[in-house]
């Protein structure tokens, strides 16, 4: 069954530069200023989509560039949305169908922001390939395409699909709607979805990401009346809205970081022994992370506790207050309407609507103050957590591929932040989703001097190709097993 | 010894318009855009100072326009300061010397801000004289000068001094230094200081002001490290500075408005029976005040409690937080350095340095949190309260004058805000200071449609003249009594 004849994957990365060479591909793509954030660069994003579509077509894929229309900027200007590319390569119903999601738009970048090299000229220094989009996400997209190209040269036992967008850095406008529309069509025969739009937890050790926290954002508004008042003329005789709000916010979390909202931990999944073991082996430099944050001391002392509290326990952060005095200096004002902002990073199996109801705990705190002011608590934004099953064939195959190419088992990691795209694909398509990064922790996505190392880029291509092999083996095995089960 | 021969004061305000007529004087002064806030109108302030100096010279006063040099604007521009006018009229050591402080600069005003009439054209509508500076402070300054002019036509038994400035609305730059320099010279023979730069508590009933609260402003800074952090990447594993700050601010004041800083009430002067009586008779429309504030309910239900808590008890107001997210919407940031701002309106006999020490109570609250963050509490601004003795001859004379002219006793009132100029004069010169308003509560200082009623302007002139008579009588009486005591 091994289509490579047990030889594993070998690719020649030393052929001279030319069309289809991985480094010249990346150089060409990085040179396109496909910044989706700045409106005047939108035409470059659209040009980038054409390049990406051509690259897939060159692979032999059927390519459909779906027009998503336009969107309106805050200033009223109408701006065209770049198309989303839906690509398809292979349609054998015997083979597993792996769908890859990636994006070819980038964050803004200017040399004068503090780049050592021109951000749009891919430059190799000490084995690192510097350039905007090198790791987020042009490099991984090309690594995948190159892996498919190589794999195709062997006997093709995997069907490939591609979803490539150009608005990820600007909120993936239109993507969710497209996924919903295509769920019964494009996605109907998809078995697995791979996203490679994040990085490892360490600089050296590969990782697979199987979950992310959600985010429930809350506004707490307290209002006393029509206008801001002078603290000389009204201080001491009124219930000040900001004093009320401070008390409400102070009721949310204790000095140890424990959330004080009754019942909030009730639905948090219990930590299994298997899960705890996953954490033990993870490569994570606590001191390095502390240094990066600038913080003197974390709430917990061990790597395991830190990661558990970052990934699989909820946290509550207060972000600020709108409507109060926020400038330097002193203004002796009693603000009449203040809005506190906080968010809860929630985790499986917390339910957003339950969390929303639990936060109404603030109404009780408020009513005990006997304040005549008006309280309004709302949740304008609620993103759910995402969690995949690490025992899914998708994760098994990726793990084996990593072991084969990198010689070690990956870390199984989560993301403390919210990864809307993974959650979106999983929720809409109900397929298995994996986040399969090839970039390292120090790649600097969104930062100056973004890079991917030449090693990661090339080994990443290999690991994707190895993954195709493993998933095809596992899939066939599963298929045969389930056929046997049916026969039995 | 009544120099008016027991006839009381009578003035003819019905002579035709002309030089020296009270209304044409005020019309001329209001027409000068002596706005000290806007740099490009500074020349108008300086022109106004010349007008005021000329007016005093026309009285027969010796006038010294003291040059205060210049000050620098935030943009680096050097702007000349208007001079302070020191005037002197009469030098008989047998007579009391009354020094009047007033200012002839004004707040900015534009027709399009919502004025019904041109702000720089004094316009009479239904008995009210509308115009910028009509009540704050050109009207009262002219009422005083006109009273002196009238009184001078009689037998002069009071020596007058004048301090007229042109930077009051811009922070009285240079005034304090001048007072200190002149303390042993110009102020050496001053017995009483009168300021008429505020308004009554009601629209109809005259008032004398004998105190104001101080203001101690505090900054509470909590910092965790170098940069703002992402709540997904660090939420749940660090001691968030804003959570610490919220807890610190929440420890300051309880829902009833009671300040929770230990010892803060220890030095507050006990309420005497005599004082409580003063409050009973005060004319104050609680419902009107509530309506003006927009607040549904005050912390206290009676007029007396409200005024006590506004004037003679301290209050604590939280104004806002610098460094946190303050814009509309949500930003899932953990701010690394946040600065809470609050102030305590303190009252006699609270001592600023004691208050500052007591606020270090926050350090204890912080240390109980076991937070590794850095706390810094500072008091960048501390203005002391001001309190005069209502049994001082100055107040007795003013009270008698009001009774004579208005036919009723004045309210003895304080100001919940800080009145730096009264405190400054009293602290530096150690003389008796009175705030002797002639404007009504609805005059709208600093607002659109500022006015003084024709009635208040003219009766104000009369009451000042009557006051000269009373203070001369009381002073002579005191002088004779003290001479007798020395002889005994």
TrEMBL record, chains A, B:
GO biological process, any: proteolysis
InterPro entries to which the protein is assigned, alphabetical: Cyt/Met_Dipeptidase, Peptidase_M20, Peptidase_M20_dimer
Molecular function GO terms recorded: dipeptidase activity; metal ion binding
GO cellular component, one term: cytosol
UniProt cross-references to Gene3D superfamilies, sorted A to Z: 3.30.70.360, Zn peptidases
Top-level taxon of the source organism: Eukaryota
CDD domains in alphabetical order: M20_dipept_like_CNDP
SUPFAM superfamilies listed in its UniProt record: Zn-dependent exopeptidases
Transmembrane segments: none
Alphabetic keyword roster: Hydrolase, Metal-binding, Protease
Domain Peptidase M20 dimerisation: 211-360
Protein name: Carnosine dipeptidase 1
Species, as recorded: Buteo japonicus
Lineage of source species: Eukaryota, Metazoa, Chordata, Craniata, Vertebrata
């Amino acid at each position: 069954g091994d289509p490579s004849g047990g030889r594993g994957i070998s690719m020649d990365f030393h052929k001279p530069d030319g069309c289809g060479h991985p480094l010249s591909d990346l150089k060409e793509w990085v040179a396109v200023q496909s910044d989706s954030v700045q409106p005047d660069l939108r035409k470059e994003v659209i040009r980038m989509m054409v390049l990406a579509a051509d690259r897939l077509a060159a692979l032999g894929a059927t390519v459909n560039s779906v027009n998503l229309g336009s969107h309106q900027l805050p200033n009223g200007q109408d701006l065209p949305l770049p198309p989303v590319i839906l690509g398809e390569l292979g349609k054998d119903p015997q083979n597993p169908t792996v769908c890859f999601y990636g994006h070819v738009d980038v964050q803004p970048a200017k040399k004068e922001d503090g780049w050592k090299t021109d951000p749009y000229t891919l430059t190799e220094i000490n084995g690192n390939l510097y350039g905007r989009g090198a790791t987020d996400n042009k490099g991984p997209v090309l690594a995948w395409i190159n892996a498919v190209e190589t794999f195709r040269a062997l006997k093709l036992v995997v069907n490939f699909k591609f979803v490539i967008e150009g608005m990820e850095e600007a909120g993936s406008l239109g993507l969710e709607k497209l996924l919903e529309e295509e769920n019964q069509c494009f996605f109907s025969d998809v078995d697995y979805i791979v996203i490679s739009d994040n990085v490892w937890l360490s600089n050296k050790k590969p990782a697979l990401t199987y979950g992310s926290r959600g985010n429930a954002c809350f506004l707490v508004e307290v209002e006393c009346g029509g206008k801001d008042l002078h603290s000389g003329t009204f201080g001491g005789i009124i219930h000040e809205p900001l004093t009320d709000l401070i008390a409400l916010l102070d009721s949310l979390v204790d000095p140890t970081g424990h959330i004080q909202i009754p019942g909030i931990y009730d639905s948090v999944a219990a930590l299994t022994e298997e899960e705890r073991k996953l954490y033990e082996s993870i490569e994570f430099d606590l001191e390095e992370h502390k240094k990066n944050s600038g913080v003197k001391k974390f709430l917990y002392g061990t790597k395991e506790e830190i990661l558990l509290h970052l990934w699989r326990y909820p946290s509550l952060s207060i972000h600020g207050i709108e409507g109060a005095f926020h400038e330097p200096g002193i203004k002796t004002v009693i603000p009449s309407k203040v809005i506190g902002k906080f968010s809860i990073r929630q985790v499986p199996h917390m339910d957003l609507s339950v969390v929303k109801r639990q936060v109404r705990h603030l109404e009780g705190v408020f009513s005990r103050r006997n304040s005549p002011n008006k309280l309004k608590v709302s949740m304008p934004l609620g993103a759910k957590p995402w969690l995949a099953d690490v025992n899914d064939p998708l994760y098994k195959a990726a793990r084996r591929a990593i072991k084969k190419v990198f010689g070690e088992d990956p870390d199984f990691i989560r993301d403390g932040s919210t990864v809307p795209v993974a959650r979106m694909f999983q929720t809409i398509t109900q397929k298995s989703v994996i986040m399969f990064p090839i970039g390292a922790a120090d790649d600097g996505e969104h930062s100056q001097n973004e890079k991917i190392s030449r090693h990661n880029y090339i080994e990443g291509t290999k690991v994707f190709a190895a993954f195709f092999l493993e998933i095809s083996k596992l899939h066939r095995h599963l298929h045969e097993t389930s056929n046997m089960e049916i026969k039995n």
